[in-house]
C-alpha cells in the first residue's frame, strides 16, 4: 500500500503546488491529519506507520472563491496501480439538473483524455477542473451583471434563510488568520465574532451560501484542535430578529464577552450548551 499511497501523495503535492490565488483545495474527511501527512511527505518523502494514516480513500474537493460549485475527487485505494482514474462528482446549491448533466459529461470527457497520462488526477484537477471552474464563475458573473441591468417588476419573494456556524479551537492568535476572517466576512456580507487568545471561538451568521463558504475557508487553514460545533439554519422564530440586528464583525478577548454577545443576539444557549461560559471556562 505504501507505494500506492506515495504515488497518490505525489500527485496531491503537485496539485497543491499548482493552486493559484482564489483557488481552494481541502480534504473532505480528516482534513488536518491529511494536510499534516502531506506536509510531512513533502518534507521527508516518507510514509508513516499504518496507524498514523487517516482512513482511506483520500477524498478532497476543489473550487474557486466566490463560486458555489464544488468538485469532489476521491482516489480509489488501489489507484493508480489497479484503478486508473479517480472518482469525480460535482455539487452546488444553485446548480440545475441540466448543468449537473453537462458537468458530468464534461468531466467524463476530460477523464478519458487524462487516462493515458502518468498523473491523471493532477492532469484533471490542475489543467482542466480549475480552468473550467474559473470559466464557469466568469460566465455566471457576467450573466448576473446582465440580469441586474434589466428592470424587473416588483415581485414578492421569500427572504433567504439565515444560517449560523460556530467553531472552537485550542487558540486563536495568528494576525494573518484574523485579518483573513475580517476580509472574508466583509466580502461575504456575514456577521459574527472571533474570540482571540485561549481558547479560540469563531461564530458567524448570514445567508446560507455565504456561511458555508466561510466555513470551508476556515477549515482550509491549518489550526490546532479546530472543531466545527455546528452549521445550521437559525430557528424560524429567530430569523426575523436576526435580520433586524446590525451586521458587523468584531473580536472578543474573554469567554464572558462571548456569552454576553450571544445573549445580545438572543442565542446564549448555543454556547452555554457546549460548556462555553460555564464554570471552569476562562
Automatic annotation (TrEMBL):
InterPro entries: Phi-like, Prp3_C, RWDD2A-B_C, UBQ-conjugating_enzyme/RWD. It comes from the Eukaryota. Pfam families: Prp3_C (PF06544). Residues 166-227 form the Small nuclear ribonucleoprotein Prp3 C-terminal domain. This is Small nuclear ribonucleoprotein Prp3 C-terminal domain-containing protein.
